[in-house]
């Protein structure tokens, strides 16, 4: 048997207390290091989120400047188009006025010509008919009566002649006014064509940059969202640490869900508040024209059901009526084509492509655009501009 010699109880207690102090110091040091690490992580996360926000803000500013440029071009085109319709309507009215005045003039001329023929036939003998009328009567009172009648006839002839002269002056003035309006019409057509060319060229030139900025803004906003969720999860984990439990919400990898109204044109576009602008036949514009290149996708603004489609007929050309699940109807006009599978009765989701921008119907030959209308409850149209701005 081996005997082990032990130390005195006092020494054992001292060694134990010394070990406990060392352990406590170690744990304190680890806590400090963990805290420092946590602070560094929090600061790094905050800096990362700040950088992401700054980058997203810069991208949004670039996109906003580009959109403002396109909207300015759209404003120039839309105002030129409205002015042309005003001139067209004025020309149509002037043509009707001039035609009506020419018809009145021809009526007055016919009456005057008939009177001249009557006078010629009456004066064809050797003695003027007027003198014969007076000399064949010996009763002076009857002669006076006949002279009075002749004066009335002469006055009527003078009135007819005056009316002819008045109508000639009116027709001449109307013809001059019509010629001036047609000159203005020709000049306005050139202005409209120039505005259209400038807008379409710039839109095509900036298409790639526009899409790049849109994609960058979307990606940065999604990154910022995820960083905020991660930061919130860390805060929840830290708060739950003292109770020994953790309950965090997974940030996941799913995209942000699109809610509410989606802008109807998926690509570079421009538009202004052109509600009420002049249109052909004295009509006023009952929607918003969203300028975009031919073939740009057009999407459902809300989830719902396609109520009706038409191809190339009427003022709107190729059109779609969408009945939203929210009880509101939406009208898309002047489309180049309708997407496959889109027909009456089809169900669609917000953001789903349903057609493509064009210039069909009475827009043929003009700038490609989507004419868009909103009909609350399926009733009359209301100005869609503000809903479009809120979703763009």
Mind sketching the topology for me?
Elements: H1 9-122, H2 129-135, H3 140-205, H4 207-241, E1 288-291, E2 297-299, E3 304-310, E4 318-324, E5 328-338, E6 347-348, E7 353-357, E8 369-376, H5 385-391
Antiparallel strand pairs: 1-8, 2-7, 3-4, 3-6, 4-5, 5-7, 5-8
Helix pairs in contact: 1-3, 1-4, 2-3
Structure notes:
This protein is an alpha+beta fold. The protein has two domains: 25-238, Orthogonal Bundle (Helix Hairpins), CATH 1.10.287; 280-391, Glucose Permease (Domain IIA) (Distorted Sandwich), CATH 2.70.70.10. It has helices at residues 9-122, 129-135, 140-205, 207-241, 385-391, and strands spanning 288-291, 297-299, 304-310, 318-324, 328-338, 347-348, 353-357, 369-376. Strands 1, 2, 3, 4, 5, 6, 7 and 8 form an eight-stranded antiparallel beta sheet that branches. A hairpin with a 7-residue loop joins β3 and β4 (318-324). The longest helix has 114 residues, at 9-122. It is elongated. The protein starts with 8 loop residues before the first helix and ends with a helix.
Alpha-beta classification: alpha+beta
Instruction: Report the major sheet.
Output: 8 strands, antiparallel
Helix segment tally = 5
Name the CATH class of the largest domain.
Mainly Alpha
Name the beta content range.
5-15%
Mean pLDDT, all residues: 77
H/E element sequence? HHHHEEEEEEEEH
Rg of Cα set: 43 Å
For the secondary structure, the number of strands is: 8
Q: Compute the number of structural domains.
A: 2
Residues in helices, as a percent range: 55-70%
CATH third-level topology of the largest domain: Helix Hairpins
Q: Which blocks of ≥5 consecutive residues have pLDDT under 50?
A: 1-9, 243-259
What distance separates the N and C termini?
93 Å
Mind telling me which CATH architecture of the largest domain this is? Answer: Orthogonal Bundle
What is the 3D shape?
elongated
């Amino acid at each position: 048997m081996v005997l082990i010699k032990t130390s005195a109880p006092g020494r054992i207690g001292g060694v134990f207390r010394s070990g406990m102090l060392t352990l406590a110091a170690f744990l304190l040091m680890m806590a400090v290091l963990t805290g420092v690490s946590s602070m560094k992580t929090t600061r790094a996360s905050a800096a990362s989120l700040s950088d992401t926000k700054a980058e997203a803000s810069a991208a949004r500013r670039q996109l906003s400047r580009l959109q403002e440029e396109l909207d300015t071009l759209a404003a120039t085109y839309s105002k030129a188009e409205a002015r042309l319709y005003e001139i067209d309507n004025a020309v149509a009215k002037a043509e009707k006025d001039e035609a009506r005045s020419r018809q009145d003039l021809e009526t007055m001329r016919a009456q005057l010509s008939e009177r001249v023929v009557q006078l010629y036939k009456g004066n064809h003998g050797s003695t003027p008919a007027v003198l014969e009328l007076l000399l064949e009567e010996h009763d002076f009172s009857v002669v006076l009566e006949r002279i009075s009648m002749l004066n009335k006839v002469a006055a009527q002839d003078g009135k007819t002649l005056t009316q002819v002269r008045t109508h000639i002056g009116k027709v001449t003035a109307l013809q001059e006014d019509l010629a001036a309006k047609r000159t203005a019409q020709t000049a306005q057509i050139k202005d409209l064509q120039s505005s259209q060319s400038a807008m379409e060229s710039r839109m095509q030139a900036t298409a790639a940059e526009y899409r790049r900025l849109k994609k960058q803004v979307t990606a940065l906003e999604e990154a910022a969202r995820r960083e905020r969720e991660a930061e919130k999860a860390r805060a929840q984990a830290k708060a739950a640490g003292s109770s020994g439990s953790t309950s965090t919400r997974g940030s996941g990898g799913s995209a942000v869900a699109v809610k509410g109204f989606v802008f109807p044109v998926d690509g570079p576009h421009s538009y202004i508040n052109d509600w009420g602008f002049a249109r052909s036949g004295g009509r006023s514009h009952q929607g918003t024209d969203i300028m975009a290149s031919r073939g740009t996708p057009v999407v459902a603004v809300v989830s719902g059901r396609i109520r009706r489609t038409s191809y190339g007929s009427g003022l709107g050309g190729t059109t779609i009526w969408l009945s939203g699940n929210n009880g509101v109807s939406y009208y898309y006009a002047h489309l180049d084509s309708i997407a496959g599978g889109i027909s009456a009765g089809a169900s669609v989701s917000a953001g789903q492509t349903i057609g493509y921008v064009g210039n069909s119907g009475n827009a043929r030959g003009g700038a490609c655009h989507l004419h868009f209308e909103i009909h609350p409850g399926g009733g009359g149209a209301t100005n869609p501009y503000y809903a479009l701005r809120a979703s763009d």
